[in-house]
Amino acid sequence: MSLDATAVIDEPPFFKRMVRMLLADKFALCAAIFLLIIVLMAIIGPSWLGDLATKQNLRGRNAAPFDFDKAWVWWMGADALGRPLLARIIVATQNTIMVAAGAVLISAVTGTVLGLIAGFSSPRISQIIMRLADVIMSFPSLLIAVIVLYILGSSILNLMMVLAITRIPVYLRTTRAEVLEIRERMFVQAARVMGASSKRIVFRHILPVVLPTLTTLATLDFAYVMLAESALSFLGIGIQPPEITWGLMISQGRQYLTNAWWLSFWPGLAIILTTMSLNLLSNWLRIALDPVQRWRLEMKGAKNG
Question: Using one digit for the tens of pLDDT, what is the confidence trace for 269-305?
């Protein structure tokens, strides 16, 4: 058996290699654990603490945090209607993550498909698609969101669609730039000479090479969309009560900043930690999915076992 064949056989599976590289980066590992907790909160939060998060208790309005004699859901204090802040933050995780995930998914799929078409089709079709992206990018994204949500009304679906539309050009331009470079490589030329169809070349040969870049971009964009949703909710044109998001909780607590800082501090801290974790994980993905740079993480992972 040749040395190349032995190396291929001994190479660990992709998932195992990714776990090793994640263990090699302690900051990325902590970020991944924190994001896993956030996802679990988004899944089970409303069914677990939904009733408690909406139950009013005017005698305990603006209760201070760190009162450990009470139940754990009261450790972050209470809002202006006496509802436990920790329970509300956990319940609000679902709407916050759902809007961001839906917007990123829609924009990533749409932008990637349009980018593949623009990068591999005729110059005329490419110019039409790129001019469409230029039109979207010519308007400030938050301004478009404000206008559309003011006209159509605030809802989870409308907010998701508006944020998705404003982010499509990011994926479109990135995908097109990658395709224009990759389609000139030897393996694509070889596939074309062997009679592969354009569809097969795009989805079997080009897309897998572009996918790591788009995955890193989507992880980073998730943080941006979540901040945009929080900003819109803070301005009062995002998701409206009785639905709750972290941005809406900050907006509801801003009038009590002088005497009840915790109403806005805790949901703001949740946004900061989630955004920071997404940025750390995005930086790790950029290295882990790059064959040129990931040897650093692989060496650390091998040393760790």
Answer: 999 999 999 999 988 888 887 776 776 666 665 555 5
| Distance from C-alpha of 187 to C-alpha of 164, rounded to nearest angstrom | 34
The residue that leads in pLDDT, 277 or 22, is: 277
Enumerate residues 6+ apart whose C-beta is below 8 A from 215: 285, 289
Residues 6+ apart with CB under 8 A from 22: 28, 29, 32, 284, 288
Q: Assess contact for 263 and 256: CB atoms under 8 A.
A: yes
**CA torsion through residues 254, 255, 261, 263, sign:** negative
Q: Which two tokens stand for residue 239?
A: 């998701």
- Please give, one letter per residue, the 3-state secondary structure of 44-81: HHHHHHHHHHHCCCHHHCCCCCCCCCCCHHHCCCECCC
- Tell me what percent of the residues of the chain surpass a pLDDT of 90: 28
The DSSP 8-state label assigned to residue 5 in this structure reads H
